[in-house]
Amino acid sequence: MRTGVFQRIITIVCLCFLLSVGVYTLYLSRRTVIAFKKEFYFLTVQAETVEVSALEIQNDGGAGFMLPKNRMALAVYFTKSDAEKVFAKNKDRYEKLSLVCLSCEELYFSGERKEEWESVINALNTLYEHILLLNELIVRVENGQTQEASKRILNEIEGNFLYLEKSYKNFSALSKLYGNSAEKLREQTENFVFTKNLRYVVCGLCKGYLDFAGEYSV
Fold it and tell me: Which ranges of the chain would DSSP assign to H, the alpha helix?
């Protein structure tokens, strides 16, 4: 008798599983899938205490940006080869140094509303372009670009961010990301432009990019 009851339970569990798989498959079949792969390679250390780790990393020129699982980012790179080169140079300098690759690969949209996925993709592309602009500025500052020239570029990017903050009110998280980033850039233009602060902003924008893309990922 117990065997019969057990078999019925197993049968019900299997049917529920198959039903859930079927519903999920039907759900995906009715959605538009867009291949949209982007990878971000964060150079990180394990953060024992957030405040101390961030201060130590920033004093050493790193971003000090907090990621999930108590990983503190020193910087972010956009190709695996660049990230591995920097990792190799610094692996003996920091304890528990590692590369963390965070990525998005596909975006999913309900129905056939082309205007919806086009607006999301355009928003992601615009954000990525500004990430690369700031990353290029970091390289220029490291190579000796003057503070005056750096602040002029930052002023332009800040203006773009303020415009995008208003333009993307329908994407509240993205709008907030632009607003907060514009404020941090303004702090740079009013003081001294440090690469560690620019790295922090870039890390934050990359994390915001992933979070925004994640809203349309499975």
Answer: 2-29, 50-59, 80-90, 114-142, 147-167, 172-190, 195-214
Residue 26: which pLDDT band, with cuts at 50, 70 and 90? very low
pLDDT bin (cut points 50, 70, 90) of residue 133 is very high
Token duo for residue 73: 């980012």
User: Mean pLDDT across the chain, nearest whole number?
Assistant: 85
Give Cβ neighbours of residue 201 (< 8 Å, ≥ 6 apart): 134, 181, 184, 185
Cα dist from 75 to 114, 163, 206, whole Å: 36, 27, 11
Task: Answer whether 138's CB lies under 8 Å from 78's CB.
Answer: no
C-alpha–C-alpha distance, residues 170 and 102, integer Å:
25
For the entire predicted model, the pTM comes to 0.83
184 CB contacts (<8 Å, ≥6 apart)? 197, 200, 201, 204
Q: Are 173 and 189 in contact (CB under 8 A)?
A: no
DSSP 8-state class, residue 78: S
10 Å CB burial of residue 202 (0-12, 13-18, 19+) is buried
The closest alpha carbon to 217, from 117, 99, 118, belongs to: 117
Give CA–CA dist 91/45, Å, rounded: 10
CA atoms of 185 and 181, how far apart (whole Å)? 6
Which pLDDT score is estimated for 62? 94
